[in-house]
Amino acid sequence: MKLSAKKSTLTGALCLKMLIIIVVAILTFNYFNDWTVLQIVNHNTGELLYEKNLNVGDQIKLKYIHSVTKQPVYEIFVVYDKSTLVLKEMLYDSFGSNLPVGPETTATETTKFIVEENYYRIVYENRRFDVIPLRVGQVIADHTLILKDEDTIRLLDIVEGGAYVEIYVKPLIGSFWKGRWLKID
After folding, report:
1. Mean pLDDT per 10-residue interval, the chain, length 185 residues
2. Distance in angstroms (rounded) separating the CA atoms of residues 26 and 97
3. Could you tell me if 65 and 71 are in contact, meaning their C-beta atoms sit under 8 angstroms apart?
4. Which letter does DSSP use for residue 96 in this model?
5. Where in the chain are the domains?
């Protein structure tokens, strides 16, 4: 009987060591990679509407039609780190409500206002977002995300107009723990 108890203890110790090695490997893997998961979630229901693996440094364009000018506006975000998006630029070709008409100064930055041949470009220095809250347009806006590989997500195709959604990135390991490891497209 002593031999059986010793064997059981050795087997338990081996399993514990293997578990520790696996956990350390997963944490190390997550620490040394630049992978994130872009998620679009319905704010009211918590329903995951869309997700896609991205890397730190990848670009996300939010395109919409301005309600007054009826012209496209592009807001260009970059994945700054595994849980932060940064607004880098806004592009549009005519002035309208809530569109800048010159440089703006906030507590943390002064934007650059650049007049190009066919459009106005606003360059932001420090506009960081943990979450981008967005009320999906019902009539004119036609909010669309354009990702690094030109993958296009029209928000009206995944949620009804008027819905309040949240757009954010989070570390890939966070998706692993919730049962959604890699989403392979």
Report:
1. 56 78 68 84 96 94 95 96 96 92 91 94 94 95 92 95 96 56 42
2. 48
3. yes
4. -
5. 1-32, 35-177
Q: Which amino acid is at 76?
A: I
AA identity, residue 56? V
Q: Which residues contact 177 (CB under 8 A, 6 or more apart)?
A: none
CA–centroid distance for 104 within its chain: 25
160 close to 36: Cβ distance less than 8 angstroms? no
Q: What is the pTM of this model?
A: 0.78
Q: What pLDDT is stored for residue 28 in this prediction?
A: 63
- The alpha helices in the chain, defined as continuous H runs, are 2-31, 172-177
DSSP structure class, residue 42: E
Strand partners, 82: none
Residue 168 contacts residue 134 (beta carbons within 8 Å): no
Q: Residue 126's pLDDT is what?
A: 81
